[in-house]
Amino acid sequence: MPAVSRTFAITLGLFALLPALGAAQRWKMQYLYDESGSNFDIRDIACPSAQRCVAAGVITDKKDREQGAVVVTSDGGSHWSLYQVKEQPLSVFFLNDTLGWMVTDRGLWSTQEGGRSWTKVDNRKGILQVHFLDAKHGIIGGISSLLEQTADGGKTWTEVPGATSEQVEPRAVSYDSLAFLGQHGIIVGEVDPDVRVHRFLNRSAGEHEPEEPQRRAIILETMDGGKKWLNGTLGLDADLGRLRISKQGAALALVVYRDAKSPIASAVFETTLGKPDTRMIFGERDRTPTDVAVLDDGSGILAAVEPPGNSPQVPIPGKLKIFESRNLKLWKEMDVDYRAVAQAAVIAVADPSHIWVATDTGAILGLDNGG
Asked: SS3 string of the chain?
């Protein structure tokens, strides 16, 4: 066969395979909590490898009694086991398949058994997020300007420099967004505009003048794993729901609009790090994003909910929608199990071929690449 004809035949063969490959990739239900009279609100999920995932949340029964719980898989989602925990989980972080941490409503716990058993390491209330760079070095963020780091695995904690400021009432700040890529970390503390903030005018006289309430955030950034920190402030017109850092030098931010008059409930923005360039990459009235993840190659996965009414902020579950994008500009809707409904969903990425989405209705979906 001539070379041109052979190339043409190969090309046709590749085009013939593309539809089949696209159709095979879908989001398959791997776990669904279906106990009668109760609901499992999965609040966070971590998947440190292609085999291990741990999801944590709260089970509420018909009498409004609440029980903390985690579900664990060690075979890539083929089988899941549910374990009760003593407190109500808020977020989880895993360093590897065995070592992880869980923030609850009453403190911080750790596990060395992949989420099957937990030991309490901190009794403080108000922690919201945790991140460890290695087994010894970690950071916690929470309400009332709580932002501390440890160098001994959580035995002792010290305040991150710049976490508090004379210009901001400490109880007004919540550090609930921690994003790290290796040693590079960005932490955002949102300032509650309803808490009165005072500006220090005269140190000697001790005079204060109330400022006009405004939405803003304290930004801290480290390039060396927390040894040195840069800080600043940023004006906000919405709440920050999720922050991610990409290897391509960008930050993805999910923002949530609380104003009922807003035409959209949430949107995703991309900012080039070190530059003032910010652009909206996803914002639709009939698709409310609740989480976004960026992969190593710069592509993205986005979890959203289709509001079941005319308003984007209807407080009842809607159909789960998941999107993918190769360039963070054009988003393609993926095939999702029809049973998946939610008000909120969170994403965990082990690698580009092993991604999971968990919902506040007790479902966990895995990306099925068709074998």
From this structure: CCHHHHHHHHHHHHHHHHHHHHHHCEEEEEEECCCCCEEEEEEEEECCCCCCEEEEEEEEECCCCEEEEEEEECCCCCCCEEEEECCCEEEEEECCCCCEEEEECCEEEEECCCCCCCEEEECCCCEEEEEECCCCCEEEEECCCCEEEECCCCCCCEECCCCCCCCCCHHHEEEEEEEEECCEEEEEEEECCCCCCEEEEECCCCEEEECCCCCEEEEEEECCCCCCCEEEEEECCCEEEEEEECCCCEEEEEEECCCCCCCCCEEEEEEECCCCCEEEEECECCEEEEEEEECCCCCEEEEEEECCCCCCCCCCCEEEEEEEECCCCCCEECEECCCCEECCEEEEEEECCEEEEEECCCEEEEEECCC
